[in-house]
């Protein structure tokens, strides 16, 4: 069974069912990497203090989910999520615009439930940061996730 990714509205933290880790602003990359090793897909290091750890085989709202954790100076700053909705139309192996819009709408519905806010505009700001789900016209893809506010 795939662990379900769940967000808390009051502080933006995330958990995965069955795992003890709380994904919160400032959590260290090495802590995440060891707890989530079975879900790890790849690492991306930008050489400027920013890095990403990419994970797969999770769930969000009951659908297959992949997620990436964005770190700055090895501290968590952002969580990016994407879902794979079964039966979505592909064109030459890529999702169609309709499939991308379906993903955006699905994630907005899940985020609306988990964050207790409407995501009809795509982005919602909180005291702890922001959450979003929208179509990225430049990359021609869905973009969804949370970004934590800067802390001193």
Description:
There is one protein chain. Helix content is 17%, strand content 45%. With 152 residues, it is an alpha+beta fold. The chain has one domain (5-148). The protein has a seven-stranded antiparallel β-sheet with strand order 4-5-6-7-12-11-10, with helices on one face. A three-stranded antiparallel β-sheet has the order 1-2-3. Strand 10 (123-126) and strand 11 (129-136) form a beta hairpin. The protein is globular, with a radius of gyration of 15 Å. The mean pLDDT is 94.
List keywords for this structure.
alpha+beta, 2 helices, seven-stranded antiparallel sheet, globular, 17% helix, 152 residues, single chain
Strand order of the largest sheet: 4-5-6-7-12-11-10
Instruction: Tell me the quaternary state.
Output: single chain
Number of strands: 12
Would you list the SSEs in sequence order as H and E? EEEHEEEEEEHEEE
The helix/strand class is alpha+beta
Q: Level of helix content?
A: 10-25%
- What's the number of structural domains? 1
Q: Radius of gyration from the CA trace? A: 15 Å
Our count of helices gives 2
Globally, the shape reads globular
How can the largest sheet be summarized? Answer: 7 strands, antiparallel
Name the average pLDDT.
Answer: 94
Strand content: 35-45%
Distance between the termini: 39 Å
Unreliable spans are: none
List the helices and strands and how they pair.
Elements: E1 5-7, E2 14-16, E3 22-23, H1 29-35, E4 40-45, E5 50-60, E6 63-72, E7 75-83, E8 90-91, E9 94-95, H2 97-115, E10 123-126, E11 129-136, E12 141-148
